[in-house]
Amino acid sequence: MNNHPIGILDSGLGGLTVLQAIARELQNESFVYIGDSVSTPYGAKSPDEIYKLAKRLIEFLLQQEVKLIVIACNTITVTCLDKLRSDYSQIPIVGTVPVIKTAAEVSKNKYIGILSTTQTAQSDYQKHLIETFANGCTVFNHGTDALVPLIEQGQLESSEMTAALQSVLQVFKNEKIDALALGCTHFPFLEKQMQTILGSNV
Ligand code: DGL
Question: Is any atom of ligand 1 closer than 6 Å to the C-beta of 57?
Answer without folding.
Answer: no
